[in-house]
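Title: Prediction job returns without error message
Component: structure pipeline
Severity: low
Priority: P3
Assignee: unassigned

Description:
Job completed but the reporter wants confirmation the result is attached to the right record. Sequence as submitted:
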Amino acid sequence: MNWAWATSLDQVWRSPAFPMWLTLAAAGFFGIIVLFTLLRAEKSVANGALTVITLLAVGIAVALAIDWFPPGATKKAHEIDTLYDVLLIVSVPVFVLVMTVALYSVITFRARPGDMSDGAPIHGNTRLEIAWTVIPTIIVLFGAGYSWSVLHDIEKPAKNAMTVDVFSQQYAWSFGYPGKDNVFVEGEMHVPVNRQIQFKMHAQDVIHSFWVPEWRIKKDNVPGITTTAIVTPDKLGTYQLICTELCGFGHASMRAKVVVETPADFQKWVSGLKEKVPAPLAESISQDTETDPVPLSAGGA
């Protein structure tokens, strides 16, 4: 089977210009609808259509102008940012249209004081019902396909990947380096720049969630299950690891320092670690059921 069309489509939506082209396409689509409405509708309807289009344009512009995340610090951060922008472009028109119709209906068709009569009998509109079924289905399928493509790409394992065990428990993070004789450190994680890291998550009590905002990747840590997050940091610096799953009273303080440094500095730092992964934590590694398995043959540090 020839999958050349899929490859070409994949290249299109990975382009940094894709959100701009999608915005222009959406504007053109709604512009055609407005033109058609203006040609066929009464003045009041035409004015309403223009108002909705204006709200759509303003909403999309505002959504794209907001910096939702800090600057990316991984090789795949731009793909996630593009995905987020595309979903905003798709979501804003849906939100504006639904809220406009809802508010218009509440104001226009509200019952006046003293009006105890029944509402007008309405038997539905087949064309409208087909439209509001087909269009959301297309949007959902598009979003699912695009998201799957991005996820598949960012989780592709590299040959020289390094493995880091991540242990989460109320309310602290700790880390093990299996490629360096299982050395262990609490509250601070170091990784080398420009090398793929495969984080193996091991929750010790309740569900936690691993998230470094600049890396974009977020992964739940589930008791009894080893989950995997794959990241390739590409910027030197110090970041924060944050738990984003409400895990108890001290959830807000469950953070750890993350340092991305040169390979030489990383080797120097990890060589200074003397403590080994404690037995209970090591036991949790062997007892967990693996999900999202990734080859660990290149798991050295």
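Comment from assignee: result matches the submitted record. Residues 1-9, 295-301 have pLDDT under 50 and may be disordered.
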